[in-house]
Write a structure and sequence with these properties.
Rossmann fold, binds S-adenosylmethionine, two-stranded antiparallel ribbon
């Protein structure tokens, strides 16, 4: 099995093959078709709801088999169907960790009859009940208010004792709303390919930093799978981190040759 490359093929077959071969991944981070009728060059985003749920259930069950004992799944979805997918994850025997939100201010709408969509949820479930990777210190964010940091803040400890809170020098803990702009408009033209639902590298890199296991030297050293790789954002982000000295092993699977070519073109430029 070769890592750090794109496999052209159907995940519904390849995931089963990976299971049969006994492969395991620390993180499955994926952005599958949301069933919103997008044109990926195939009909994968245009299923009857029942078929979409059946196929999603099978994929999630196979992904569960592919996780290491401390592995996690990050599964992007859309508000229309995320409730169904969350139920499928529970039924598969995965453990709920968080409904994260990818929030973007620069969304656009074709309808004035409903609010503008400004988020896409992504579910985090773990294989184990009480062990998983989350690198809290790698994704800290600046404190919102510097006023609060000027004067000491006190709080009550477990036994009622007075304790002083000190700010973390690396910033505040990141929340579960991950704010990164979409790749819309001129500002992102350099990053954007012709793939209709390409995710921003900034978002995916932040997820890798948060969820990829690290070695004793503090370098990312885990295995990551994206079974719906599209234009290759997951692979590109892993390779950019590897160029900084990390040791991430990744695999991307994509049905369409066109998107594999786009991914390989992006990878060749790193
Ligand atoms: C939402 S897009 C992923 C976009 C990706 N995150 C990016 O940044 O470019 C989903 C992709 O899954 C692919 N796809 C759909 N069904 C598939 C299948 N059964 N196996 C592999 N890929 C599939 C589609 O062709 C599409 O490119």
């Amino acid at each position: 099995m070769d890592y750090n490359c794109v496999i052209r093929g159907n995940s519904d077959e390849i995931l089963q093959k990976f299971v049969d071969e006994g492969l395991q991944f620390d993180l499955i981070c994926t952005d599958p078709p949301y069933n919103l009728n997008k044109d990926f060059g195939n009909d994968s985003d245009k299923l009857e709801l029942d078929d979409f749920l059946k196929v999603t259930q099978r994929r999630i069950e196979l992904c569960k088999e592919l996780l290491t004992p401390t592995g996690s799944i990050l599964w992007f979805g859309i508000h229309h169907y995320i409730g169904f997918i969350q139920t499928i994850m529970y039924n598969a025997g995965l453990y709920y960790r968080r409904m994260n939100i990818w929030y973007y201010e620069n969304g656009f709408s074709r309808s004035s009859k409903a609010p503008l969509t400004q988020y896409e949820p992504f579910l985090w479930f773990s294989k184990a009940k009480s062990k998983w990777t989350y690198n809290v210190d790698d994704v800290r964010v600046p404190y919102k208010s510097t006023e609060r940091l000027k004067t000491p803040v006190y709080y009550k400890g477990k036994n009622g004792e007075k304790k002083m809170w000190t700010p973390n020098p690396n910033g505040a803990m990141r929340g579960d709303v991950w704010a990164f702009p979409t790749l819309a408009g001129k500002a992102y033209a350099k990053e954007k390919t012709e793939h209709p639902t390409q995710k921003p590298e900034a978002l995916i890199t932040e997820l890798i930093k948060a969820y990829c296991p690290k070695n004793n030297d503090g370098l990312y050293e885990g295995t990551i799978l994206d079974p719906f790789h599209g234009s290759g954002t997951l692979g590109v982000c892993c390779e950019k981190l590897n160029k900084q000295g990390h040791h991430i092993k990744w695999v991307g699977i994509e049905l369409e040759q066109r998107w594999c070519d786009v991914a390989n073109e992006r990878l060749s430029k790193i």
